Amino acid sequence: MQESSNNQGQLVRSIGLISAIVLIISSVIGTGVFKKVAAMSAELQSPVLVLIAWLLAGLISLAGTLSNAEVASMLADSGGDFVYFKKIYNRFFAFLFGWTNFAVIRTASIASIAYVFAQSLNTLVVFPETSKALSDFSFFGLHLFDNLSVKLVAIALIIFQTYFNYRGLKLGENLSRVLTALMFIVMLTIIILGLTSSVGSIDNITTNSVKYNADTMSGGVLFKALALACLSAFWGYEGWASVGFIGGEMKNPQRNLPLALISGMVIVIVTYLLMNFVYLYILPIDEFINIYESKNGIAAVAVVNSFLGSWGSLLISGLILVATFNCSSTTILLASRLFYAMARDNMFFKKVDYIHPKYNTPSKALFIQAIWTCLLVLSGTFDQLTDMLIFAAFIFYGATALGVFILRRTMPDTPRPYKVIGYPVVPAIFILFCVALIINTLIEKPYEALSGLGLMATGLPFYFYWAKKKS
């Protein structure tokens, strides 16, 4: 379809409070709640500690949400934190945020979610196996053709959902409402059936792994294990801030955006705790450790299969398909607005500064996002991508929380429809945690951390080129 830069549409303020809450929930609940309990169990070897890690990660994410909400209540516009950072810091830092989202945070998130969708579909419809020669082929250490059929299905999903979101915001919003409602109905069914099942036992919650050593799991060792487990849990909570990218398409964003952020995150935290309690109630923790070590299978599927049998496997596989389909579609919708906002401000490829005249969507931003995301699907494993993006994301989450203090000093008289609860303690705790997580990831997972920083650095030549062109 021919698109003329002289014949543009415009973003329309059509998103209300309920729709914004739905978009937050659907952008967060994707894969982590079904998959990450296995990795966390292997790290902590204690069901109680696993639940504590989920709660701790949720409360820390909520602290970040509360901090973000105050900034959003003042500065809400299309582009979210990109717009905030220009005001709080400078154009360069705002660019680094936007570029990092393009290079890894949002695109790797979409790639990872789409990959799990394809894995789940593979449990229902068996895909052709990749030949050993293709699986073993390595390009700069990347096994591009490993699990090729799964990767191709993930790429097909990304292309389909990009086209779907290209056709209009309302289509994506309505789809998200339907899928989110369906997702909660199935999750509630699993929670009720799991808690009332004769298969489960409270002993599974109170019994540690046979590998658990109370003498060594204390002090610094416990702190390090909790930190690494929380890194997995944060993937489950990732995505809450991206709803700020559609600030320019929300009704009364100064009021509705903070309310949506807080309400959506509280709902997600409660849901995650209930789901993980059911997992650990049904199966002993050593089962989850075996799933993690075998690197084959999804924890939630094993749980539901154990107390509902074969039809339970179909139920949970269907739930994962719905959740991942919903999450990837919403993330594609939201993230594209950031790249459009960057291009509009001459800090991205200029042709991306385009709104489709008929559908009123940032069509070219959607397409360039899809191309890079498909390449990331081929580039590495699910866990590498998620650890990489969590490390990068928390650099900017911390910067937004720090912005609460800066704006209180530089813009004291600006109206704040919402002020962060527990100021200054809540944003200060969140900032300190972000610093600790960043340092811990650099030490414990240097490959993922340095890869994230390397992808951030790839934007520097582009920034100086666009800055020179603008001047």
From TrEMBL:
Pfam families: AA_permease_2
UniProt entry keywords in alphabetical sequence: Membrane, Transmembrane, Transmembrane helix
InterPro entries: AA/rel_permease1, AminoAcid_Transporter
Coiled-coil boundaries: none
One example GO MF annotation: L-amino acid transmembrane transporter activity
Entry membrane topology: Multi-pass membrane protein
Highest taxon, organism lineage: Bacteria
Compartments, as annotated in UniProt: Membrane
Main location, first listed in the record: membrane
Segments passing through the bilayer: 12-34, 46-66, 92-118, 148-166, 178-202, 222-247, 259-282, 314-340, 361-382, 388-408, 420-443, 449-466
GO cellular component: membrane
Official protein name in the record: APA family basic amino acid/polyamine antiporter
Record organism: Arcicella aurantiaca
The organism's taxonomic lineage, starting at the top: Bacteria, Pseudomonadati, Bacteroidota, Cytophagia, Cytophagales
